[in-house]
Amino acid sequence: LVHRVVTIDGPAGAGKSTVARLLAERLGWRFLDTGAMYRVVTLAALRGEVALDDPEALDRLAARLEAAFPPGRALLGGEDVSQAIRDVAVTRASRFIADCAAVRARLVAWQRAFADAADVVTEGRDQGTVVFPDAARKFFVTASEVERARRRHRELQAKGSDTTFEAVLADQQARDARDASRAIAPMKPADDAETVDTTGLTIDQVVDLLHRKVLPSP
Ligand code: C5P
């Protein structure tokens, strides 16, 4: 690898993307939210009424997708879809995209291209295991199931959603179970990843902790 890469993998709702974005800002590196890529393909499939269980159709869709990911945002054909990709319907349907080997291969190539161009903090499920096995530093960021569901529930409430905590928890459990057991690129810590449990920590505390580990003071 020409550029430096820090990978942050872990289950849903662990705060990975906020932490990765802030860590990238501190380091002056680029931030890559790979979940947003899977979500953009999912949104495009739902909008285009592409059959989610048809891998060839999904691959054709991914091949002609015009997406861009400026820091913290997602664009589809020039439209800002940063909010739309967080919809519950998109979150639920994203598993079909995550299971599609051909689409994964495209997104992995895309992710590696980011790291060819700049130092990156990248966040997802398979970044340390599959996409960047040679990354300088790998973290598996997690938190207790209940705390993660609480955080996500609060976020959804703040956006005016009336989803219950129980529904958020059930969705999260189903998604984690699928992500951990999928045949290709399952979610798991890389052998050389350090697991960081963020239960009870604030975002700032987590960013500080990772920052110290990435750049130990002399
Ligand atoms: O992280 P986020 O919740 O945005 O990811 C949405 C879904 O995309 C995940 O549940 C997972 O199935 C898929 N994903 C993946 N590999 C990644 C990132 C996300 O399979 N590197």
From TrEMBL:
<dbReference type="GO" id="GO:0016301">
    <property type="term" value="F:kinase activity"/>
</dbReference>
<feature type="binding site">
    <location>
        <begin position="10"/>
        <end position="18"/>
    </location>
    <ligand>
        <name>ATP</name>
    </ligand>
</feature>
<protein>
    <recommendedName>
        <fullName>Cytidylate kinase</fullName>
        <ecNumber>2.7.4.25</ecNumber>
    </recommendedName>
</protein>
<keyword id="KW-0067">ATP-binding</keyword>
<keyword id="KW-0418">Kinase</keyword>
<keyword id="KW-0963">Cytoplasm</keyword>
<dbReference type="Pfam" id="PF02224">
    <property type="entry name" value="Cytidylate_kin"/>
</dbReference>
<feature type="domain" description="Cytidylate kinase">
    <location>
        <begin position="6"/>
        <end position="212"/>
    </location>
</feature>
<dbReference type="InterPro" id="IPR011994">
    <property type="entry name" value="Cytidylate_kinase_dom"/>
</dbReference>
<keyword id="KW-0808">Transferase</keyword>
<dbReference type="InterPro" id="IPR003136">
    <property type="entry name" value="Cytidylate_kin"/>
</dbReference>
<keyword id="KW-0547">Nucleotide-binding</keyword>
<dbReference type="InterPro" id="IPR027417">
    <property type="entry name" value="P-loop_NTPase"/>
</dbReference>
<comment type="similarity">
    <text>Belongs to the cytidylate kinase family. Type 1 subfamily.</text>
</comment>
